[in-house]
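User: I'm putting together notes for a lab meeting next week and I want to include a structural view of one of the chains we've been expressing. I don't have a solved structure, so I'd like a prediction I can at least talk through. The sequence is below, exactly as it appears in our construct file.
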Amino acid sequence: MSQSINVVYPPLRDPSEIPFLLSSCIASARSSGIDIHLLDFNQNFWEYVLDLEEVKSRYKTLEGDWNYWSEQQEIPPNKIEYVYGLLKAFLRREHVENKLVEAVKMMKSSEDLNKREEARTVIRYALELFQLPYTPTQLALNDANLMFSTESTEQLYKSIEHPSNPFYHFLMSMIEERATEWIIWVEADQQLIPTYTLTYLIHKKYPNINISWAGPFFAEFGANLITRSPSFIDKVVAVTHPNDFIQSLSSVRRINNPVIKWGYDDLKISDYWTPYDDIRLRKEWINDLSFCAWLTGEHNPTIRFYLYQPTTAIDALKWGEILERFRWGFYLKFDQFLSGDDIDLLKSKGVEWIHWELKGGLATDSVDVVKENMLQTWRACKEANIPVYHSIVLGYPLSSPEDFRAFITFLSDHQEWVDRNIRFKLFRLYENSPFWNRPKDYGITWISEQKPSMDLQRGFPFRTYTGWDSEHFYTLATSLVSQVQRKTRKDFPRDVLAVDDTKLYLSNTKEEEDVQEINVDDHIKVVLSSKIQNVTLPFSPTDLEKGVQLTVPGQEKTYSSDPVIQKEVNVLYDLEKDRFILINSAVSTVLRTCDHAIEIGDLLKKFPKKQHASVRQLVKKLRQGGILIEQARRTIST
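Assistant: Thanks for the context. Below is the predicted structure for the 638-residue chain, given as structure tokens.
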């Protein structure tokens, strides 16, 4: 009987994510004569949960509960979480039903960061709808947080059959296809609960079938998870290259020396993101005939070259031309600053943008020289029309908190030269990194022991002689990030945030740009923004939020003895920021008058003349806050 293997790509990744490495592994396995099938449960889940008719049906199911609780005089403590979730769900209803189909398309195709952020919010609202009566669970696509804000294997186990697990029934319906072996491919945190759930369900249905875990996740963050994997897992394989995958399969099937053929199918080599064996080029090799002869030989797709400082742009480009001639990959790492001539040269060779990772190291004997070099580089890039992108790293051991604050101030004072700040990263200390192996060389004076329960912990807590304490990184980062974040240019988008840095995405960060004077001319038409709900609620959302005890599988809840008492309140709900603003009845009255576009002059006529000045001032504030927006005047062409 032929042996078949099902390889599952579990939820929940961004729907635009394509598992390039997995596709190559499967192509290589097939070329070795292995009967192997890819089951993309990630795409299936998106189609299953984010189907508009399913969402509408879910709302219909919840209507009875919402109508019941909205008429009660009080909400008992053990129901507050559910009622709070229902309240938010029904405020979002029209928004979700109208925007969901477009949002899913946007996540699959759009490269516009602003549109993707809006789409991400709509999709999160739809997913949370299916998790009621439990809310919220931090199930937010590419956010690095685990679904229940936990990092312990124990919690992952307890999540499997918990009713708040949105994957359970879906995955149960997906494992009908029999196979002699199942391999679950894991690439990210968001796939862990589905992976545990799927493993449990397969073992329960097919107790004698081999189940393995594989993927790049285990090479990066899963080392401790491997030693604590479920007892019915046959093995866990860290895959960073198709060879790892094939060798793993051959060890089970005793296939002797399978021939590896690189089956990329329709994938472009430029899109193939497999980790490579990086070889640092030596300057003396550039004239070495034997090296050039080696380059002309058989192409090894697992190797790429890089050139690191100290070097010059001219030397780097010479290397690039040589490697390009022999069809080898090449990338350039520059820690130093570039002159105007360097930038002109790079641009002439096709460089489209430059990205620097800044670690805040201004604590040198020549701080002024370093600053001037940076400014000269930025000016040269601007003159050459080459965009400048920055990533900022907080906590680099050889810097200090004081130096970093000064560095942030310097960056803030010269924002006009930067096109976008891409990432705000927190420095992490990992095992077997140079910082771990030689801590004294990097000023690290203390490294804590990893807590046994935190087996997916991102890095080890540490302290340095310069004053860094990793325990305080988040606090310091949240106090500094707004100094360099410019929301108008989409700084620090979540799509490219480093793992575990999602807490630093401050959607309500105050704009630092000068606010333009708002015109309140009587002939201007204003209307309530479609992103704002102006409603009267039977309960205060603030009171409900205070009483919410979030559900975490395996953790006992301790409810307060006080129910939430019915109290009508006027609120604005910001659909984009998921935020409530309490308002008084007078403001609510003005906003209701603006449900449909109205000229400010006509709006004023609806109030006594003595109130005109205060209403006009209120309209100005509401426009500044984006709550009221100006309706564009119609032209002949429209």
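A couple of points you could mention at the meeting. The first helix runs from residue 20 to 31. Residues 372 and 547 are 54 Å apart (CA to CA).

User: Perfect, that's what I needed.
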